[in-house]
Design brief:
- The complex is a heterodimer of chains A (158) and B (90).
- Chain A is α/β, with parallel strands linked by helices and 158 residues long.
- Chain A is built from five helices and five strands, in the order βααββββααα.
- Helices cover 38% and strands 20% of the residues of chain A.
- Chain A has a five-stranded mixed β-sheet, with helices on both faces.
- In chain A, a hairpin with a 2-residue loop joins strand 2 and strand 3.
- Chain B is globular and about 30 Å long.
- In chain B, strand 1, helix 1 and strand 2 form a beta-alpha-beta unit.
- Chain B has a four-stranded parallel β-sheet, covered by helices on one side.
- Classes of the chains: A alpha/beta (158), B alpha/beta (90).
- At the A-B interface, helix 2, strand 3 and helix 3 of A face helix 1 of B.
- Chain B: Keywords: Sugar transport, Transferase, Transport.
Chain lengths: 158, 90
């Protein structure tokens, strides 16, 4: 039985970090890891693994202009499937050829490799709207983040 | 037609690419099976694939393949994905 990721418009406050300070891409990923840990989804070591993935394969996690999706494989340090959303006070470069600098980091934790299927489709709905990254980056409250994510996830963009 | 989307971990980013590739193929009215996997499994997962979708950073990690490698810069840009898939499979 596979547990779905929580829906985007119900992200708990601990899973959201607004206007966080990051000096480089590693600290930006670490903020996302801290949020995943604060929300009870993963241990701090999951953050190490998210960073290792970028060190191993490069900054491919920067999947759209301004947006990084930090993640790693399922593992014993993931307690529950979950998402975290971080906005950065100052954008940081990940070294991506096209999509730097990054102002929004999504942290994704999964306990099974096939868990993403339904919920990642909702993520795709949200971010297929190119105005959403700057809107999220400018958001001033967790409620505003949830409202933006919920409105975009409900829109039919297919 | 078999298409494989790959990322480093096989969760998350490859799945987003898969979802949006399916949408792009619907636009093109092309019938294809699209799966998502991690780069370490690409040899077996993509053995009989015609197209591999991935990001610029992962091209070097794919190794030898008979499939066309289609590099997507913005995973959420359906116009980019549609245009590049149309060239690869059209």
């Amino acid at each position: 039985m596979s547990f779905p990721l929580p829906s985007l418009d119900h992200l708990p406050d601990p899973a959201i970090a607004l206007k966080a300070t990051a000096t480089d891409w590693r600290s930006a990923v670490r903020v996302a890891a801290d949020a995943l840990e604060a929300a009870g989804y993963a241990d701090a070591s999951y953050g190490d693994r998210m960073i290792t993935l970028v060190e191993e394969y490069g900054p491919y996690i920067v999947i759209a202009p301004g947006l990084a999706m930090a993640h790693a494989r399922p593992g014993a340090d993931v307690h529950a499937p979950g998402l975290a959303l971080v906005t950065l006070a100052e954008p940081v470069n990940f070294g991506h050829a096209h999509n730097d600098p990054v102002s929004v980091v999504i942290g994704l934790a999964a306990t099974e490799a096939d868990q993403h299927v339904a919920s990642v489709a909702a993520l795709a709905n949200v971010f297929n709207d190119e105005t959403i990254v700057p809107a999220l980056a400018a958001a001033g409250s967790c409620d505003e983040i949830r409202r933006l994510l919920g409105a975009a996830a409900g829109a039919d963009l297919s | 037609m078999k298409i494989v989307a790959i990322c480093g971990a096989g969760i998350g980013t490859s799945e987003i690419l898969r979802v949006n590739a399916v949408r792009a193929l619907e636009r093109l009215d092309i019938d294809a099976e699209v799966s998502a996997t991690d780069v370490a499994s690409v040899g077996s997962a993509a053995a009989d694939a015609q197209v591999i979708l991935t990001s610029p950073e992962l091209v070097g990690a794919i190794g030898r393949t008979n499939a066309d490698i289609v590099v997507i810069e913005n995973y959420f840009d359906l116009d980019e994905i549609t245009a590049k898939l149309e060239v690869a499979v059209g």
